[in-house]
Amino acid sequence: MESWVRFLVLFLACLLPGLVESRIRHYKFNVVLKNTTRLCSTKPIVTINGRFPGPTLYAREDDTVLVKVTNHVKYNVSIHWHGVRQLQTGWADGPAYITQCPIPPGQSYVYNFTITGQRGTLLWHAHILWLRATVHGALVILPKRGVPYPFPAPHKEVNVILAEWWKSDTEAVINQALSSGVAPNVSDAHTINGHPGSVANCSSQGGFTLPVENGKTYLLRIINAALNEELFFKIAGHKLTIVEVDATYVKPFKTDTIVIAPGQTTNALITANQNSGKYLVAASPFMDSPIAVDNLTATATLHYSGTLASTPTTLTNPPPQNATQVANNFINSLKSLNSKKFPAKVPLKIDHNLLFTVGLGINPCPTCKAGNGSRVVASVNNVTFVMPTTALLQAHVFNISGVFTTDFPGNPPNTFNFSGGPSANASMATTNGTKLYRLAYNSTVQLVLQDTGTIAPENHPVHLHGFNFYAVGRGVGNYNPNKDPKKFNLVDPVERNTVGVPSGGWAAIRFQADNPGVWFLHCHLEVHTTWGLKMAFLVDNGKGPNESILPPPSDLPKC
């Protein structure tokens, strides 16, 4: 009998390979507190399964993933699968009060989604409060079985997760800032795979070690899971060949330094082609505005096999903190692979031409003593987003009135010298609202994100949920709608889910609204999200069930 069953399975595998190639992958995420020591100081942190960083979630293209998240801590929790398209499955996207009510203490929710047409490195992280400081991990999507990478197969693959560490409780850090009206304290260290590396006044602090064999090539899956800081990453004496960003293949190029913003991922090949020894790995901040950052460099070690532990480490100097040109060189080198198998399908006909200003403002706050009766806020097109108490997607699907409006402005309400300093037309004050911008299914969008210098120009890594987009252009100063589009790259622009809006400049993206639901757009610097630099697109259903959002799962949390 068993032989007949085996024969039938093999026969079906040959006859219908598509049916048996994809599989269902089950994961259990328990949200628990864990006492953790860094910088010679111990504190309880919120983790998944007691691990920091959290466990890696592996899947293949077209697999279905079911993650049962059970909340054992005092905070409400939700998890976002950053960069996963979530086609028709907005209920599994994760941002609290946008696509779901959060998971209350003591309860569970199963995130159920299929990874359609995606492969590469993404990340998962908490999407409520500041919990993603420690609740994050890698999401590795392998190509379909038997499908090779479009670059030489590496000897080994290694996840490299960059993050920040506070000695204080991060929830206390942001709560104190919100009550005072001023910026929160910066982190005390950066980390590489959970470790800051060598730190002054803390000799017991170890670092991550990356073991390599001479002549072998390794694929580094680099993830920036930091809350608030863009980072440079480099390895002493070695070149990195960039082959992918945000789970999309790029034309390979060599560099010694990458720049990576929170929410972004970069896959890089490194060949162990130097003299045997130990080489410094460095992650340091990039900030080209007069804004306070954690200036500590996180370190790790690239360790050739056979090298004695006592061997001195070959060092490298990280770029200066304000090395704009180093960052620009990297960003401008990114081009879509645009091959026959992986074409760049850039929308050429545009239905919605949008201009969104992104920046900071100041609103009255009588109780904010540290802010002298004012508080720092952030906005998109001068609207500081007010988080609802009912999830927007539920309000949309079930026609619950009074939760949001669909009058988000497609252009700034006031025109002024956006990238300049304060001016007569540039009001420091913002308006408050829970406003969405409505899109018809399959409509095409060009969105120009313009930084403002009303308080201070700053680089904003802006993340769009539910879509990939093409970064067709960027520049410094104010976007010129007559001149700048002539310089757009509409042939092989890089495809991403998180784009860096340059300090005092602009970035233009294009996407097709082929995913019904409510999709969050926000700055991935958590402090700016907290302050209100966020909005959402409402994409209507198309025709029939294949172009409509699926019904909500029965265990969807309630507000």
Automatic annotation (TrEMBL):
Enzyme's top EC category: oxidoreductase
Chain ranges of the Plastocyanin-like domain: 34-144, 157-306, 408-542
Signal peptide from the UniProt entry: 1-22
tRNA-binding found in the keyword field: no
InterPro entries recorded: Cu-oxidase-like_N (IPR011707), Cu-oxidase_2nd (IPR001117), Cu-oxidase_C (IPR011706), Cu-oxidase_fam (IPR045087), Cu_oxidase_CS (IPR033138), Cu_oxidase_Cu_BS (IPR002355), Cupredoxin (IPR008972), CuRO_1_LCC (IPR034288)
Free-text comment on the cofactor: Binds 4 Cu cations per monomer.
GO biological process terms on file: lignin catabolic process
Any one cellular-component term (Gene Ontology): apoplast
Xref: CDD domains: CuRO_1_LCC_plant, CuRO_2_LCC_plant, CuRO_3_LCC_plant
UniProt EC number: 1.10.3.2
Subcellular location: Secreted, Extracellular space, Apoplast
Keyword terms: Apoplast, Copper, Glycoprotein, Lignin degradation, Metal-binding, Oxidoreductase, Repeat, Secreted, Signal
Cofactor(s) the record lists: Cu cation
Catalysed reactions, as listed in the record: 4 hydroquinone + O2 = 4 benzosemiquinone + 2 H2O
GO-annotated molecular function: copper ion binding; hydroquinone:oxygen oxidoreductase activity
PANTHER family (UniProt xref): LACCASE-4, MULTI-COPPER OXIDASE
Role according to the record: Lignin degradation and detoxification of lignin-derived products.
Entry similarity comment: Belongs to the multicopper oxidase family.
Protein name: Laccase
